[in-house]
Design brief:
There is one protein chain. The protein has helices at 14-18, 65-109; strands spanning 9-11, 24-26, 28-33, 40-45, 54-57, 61-62. By secondary structure, the chain is an alpha+beta fold. It is elongated, with a radius of gyration of 24 Å. The chain starts with 8 loop residues before the first strand and ends with a helix.
């Protein structure tokens, strides 16, 4: 099965987003297929050096810059949600430590 290859694609990864970088514009040269699969799962790009190609997951590649920006916005919201959950757990631990310290102090008075 032959799939049409776009001239350019934009790559959005969690690492790039967390580093404050925008989408990476790539010029794909071919698709990579899973073992005995007919749907592409990778995008191949060529490098300046011979025999040095880069593979990007199809889930990280977008055909339009608008779609890449939408993906970044979703990724940012998910990252904020994850980090807020971590912060809430840390606050709960501090609250528990404060309560335990207060109990210890009150026991020492009696």
């Amino acid at each position: 099965m032959d799939h049409e290859l776009p001239t350019y694609m934009w790559v959005v990864t969690r690492a790039r987003t967390r580093a404050g970088k925008g989408p990476l514009k790539i010029a794909p040269v071919g698709y990579g297929y899973a073992y005995q699969g007919d749907k592409p799962v990778w995008i191949r790009t060529a490098s300046q050096q011979e025999h040095n190609e880069k593979l990007y997951s199809m889930t990280e590649c977008y055909v339009t810059p608008e779609a890449a920006m939408d993906a970044i916005n979703i990724m940012i919201k998910l990252e904020i949600f994850r980090e807020q959950a971590k912060l809430n757990k840390l606050k709960d631990k501090f609250t528990e430590a404060r309560r335990a310290a207060k109990e210890c102090f009150l026991k020492s008075l009696s």
